[in-house]
Design a protein that fits this description.
The chain is of the alpha/beta class and 323 residues long. The protein is built from 11 helices and 12 strands. It binds ligand PBG.
C-alpha cells in the first residue's frame, strides 16, 4: 500500500496536536452569569442547576473577586426580584436603588476593572413573567421598548459597561443607543441578543429567577428554531442600530447560526451556553453517563470553533480550572 498523504501524522502526539490546534480556549473568552438575591450571606443552590448558586450582594462581590483573579474578564448580571415588587410596567426595573443598580455599584467599587454586563428585559420584574408589558394577552412592543431604554440608562448611570437586551422587542437597540447618546454615555456598549430563540433550554434559568411566563410562551418575540436567515437579518439590523456585540442563544443547538453570523456580521459574536445546556451535562455526569470535565471542554471548544468570540457560560470557572 503506497500513500502520499497520512492524516494521522498530525495526531501522533499531544505536542503535535497542540501545535496544530485551531481553537484554544482562554479565560478571556468567558462571560460569567451571576444570579443575585436580596439579603446577607445568602448562597442558595438552584435545584435544576446543581453546583450553581444565587448569591446575596456581599457574596456576589466575593465571587466577582474570585472570577477576576482567575482571569475572567466579564460578568453578566441577573437579579431575582421579590414578588411584591413585580408589576406590569417594569417599575422596579428602573428603580435607581433597585437590586440590579446596587449590584452594579457594589461590583464597580470592589473590582473596577471587570466588565459589567447587565440583562435588560422585563421578565424578572413582570407579574406575568414576560419580557415586556402585557395588554389584552399580548406583549406590546413599543411601550416595552420605552421602558427598556430607561432601564438601560439606569444601568449605565449605576456604572454598567455593557447593557445586554435579551427581550427581543423590535427597535430596542436603536432606542437604547439613542438614550445612551442623549445622556452622554458614549462608552457604554450594547450586547444584543439578536439570535435569541424560543427554546426549551431556558427552564432551569426560569427556576433560578422565578421568572417563568404565567401564560403562553415567548414565541411571538423570540425566534423560531426552524429559521436561521431571520437570525442573520436581525443580527445585521442590531449591528446597524448600534449593537457592539451580537449574541446567539442557546449555543450548541445553534452552531450553524453562530457560523452564519460570524461570517456575515462583522462585529464580535457571543454565544450563550444556557441553563438547560448546563443542566444536561450535569445530569448526565451525575448518572455516570458522561465525563463532566470532558463534556465541558468539548462543548465550549465547539462553540468557539463555530465562530463565537465570547461565551457566556455557567461553566466559566470550571473551564478556567480545566484549561
Ligand atoms: C430573560 C432571559 C432568559 C435567559 C437570559 N435572559 C430567559 C428567557 O428568555 O426566558 C435564559 C438564560 C439561560 O437559560 O441560561 N430575558
Amino acid at each position: 500500500m503506497i500513500m502520499i498523504r497520512r492524516n494521522r501524522i498530525l495526531r501522533t502526539s499531544p505536542a503535535i496536536r497542540a501545535m496544530v490546534a485551531e481553537t484554544i480556549l482562554t479565560p478571556s473568552d468567558f462571560i460569567a452569569p451571576l444570579f443575585i438575591v436580596e439579603g446577607e450571606n445568602v448562597k442558595e443552590e438552584i435545584s435544576s442547576m446543581p453546583g450553581y448558586f444565587r448569591y446575596s450582594l456581599d457574596l456576589t462581590v466575593k465571587e466577582v473577586k474570585e472570577l477576576w483573579s482567575m482571569g475572567i474578564k466579564s460578568v453578566l448580571l441577573f437579579i431575582k426580584c421579590a414578588d411584591e415588587l413585580k408589576d406590569n410596567k417594569g417599575t422596579e426595573a428602573v428603580n435607581p436603588n433597585g437590586l440590579m443598580q446596587r449590584a452594579i455599584r457594589a461590583i464597580k467599587d470592589a473590582v473596577p476593572e471587570i466588565v459589567i454586563m447587565t440583562d435588560v428585559a422585563l421578565d424578572p420584574y413582570s407579574s406575568y413573567g414576560h419580557d415586556g408589558i402585557v395588554e389584552n394577552g399580548e406583549i406590546v412592543n413599543d411601550a416595552t421598548v420605552e421602558v427598556l431604554a430607561r432601564m438601560s440608562l439606569s444601568h449605565a448611570e449605576a456604572g454598567a459597561d455593557f447593557v445586554a437586551p435579551s427581550d427581543k422587542m423590535d427597535g430596542r437597540i436603536l432606542s437604547i443607543r439613542s438614550i445612551l447618546e442623549q445622556n452622554s454615555f458614549h462608552k457604554v456598549g450594547i450586547m444584543a441578543y439578536s439570535a435569541k430563540y424560543a427554546s426549551c433550554l431556558y427552564g432551569p434559568f426560569r427556576d433560578a429567577l422565578d421568572s417563568a411566563p404565567g401564560f403562553g410562551d415567548k414565541k411571538t418575540y423570540q425566534l423560531d428554531y426552524a429559521n436561521s436567515t431571520m437570525a442573520l437579518k436581525e443580527a445585521l439590523m442590531d449591528a446597524q442600530e448600534g449593537a457592539d456585540i451580537v449574541m446567539v442563544k442557546p449555543a450548541l443547538y445553534y452552531l450553524d447560526v453562530i457560523r452564519r453570523i460570524k461570517d456575515e456580521v462583522h462585529i464580535p459574536v457571543s454565544a450563550y451556553h444556557v441553563s438547560g445546556e448546563y443542566a444536561m451535562i450535569k445530569a448526565a455526569a451525575k448518572m455516570g453517563w458522561l465525563n463532566e470535565e470532558k463534556a465541558i471542554i468539548e462543548a465550549l471548544t465547539s462553540i468557539k470553533r463555530a465562530g463565537a468570540d465570547l461565551i457566556a457560560t455557567y461553566f466559566a470557572k470550571d473551564a478556567v480550572r480545566l484549561l
